[in-house]
Fold Methyl-accepting transducer domain-containing protein.
Amino acid sequence: MLLSYFTEIMRAFHCPAVVADEVRNLAAKSAEATKQSIQLIIDSTEKVTGGIEIASKLETIHLEITQKNEEVNDLIVQIDTTTAVQAKTILRITEGHEQISTVVQTNATTSEESSASSEELSAQATILREKIQ
């Protein structure tokens, strides 16, 4: 394109007004291209700034998610620990219940034996009274 302009300029070299017009036209086109370039740079800068803001918000959200995830993990560990303590406590309660059952059974057996002994002693006491009378 420039070659055609230079060619026309060379042909019209004998007329300085034509050359001046062409130089003005080229300067106007260059100024317009510069304006368009500046506008593209401004638009790109705005888009980059918007992208930076979005990335910053995403980073904040990611940090919040990470923090909440750590809190959930801590709660899971606490639940696990509490569950283990509860399981041990239930085991101790079960063992205590079994011991109580054993004691109750032993007491029942002892009670039956005591009752039988009492009856035996009562019978012997009756026999003894009869012999004494």
Summary: The chain has one domain: 2-132. Helices lie at 2-11, 16-132.
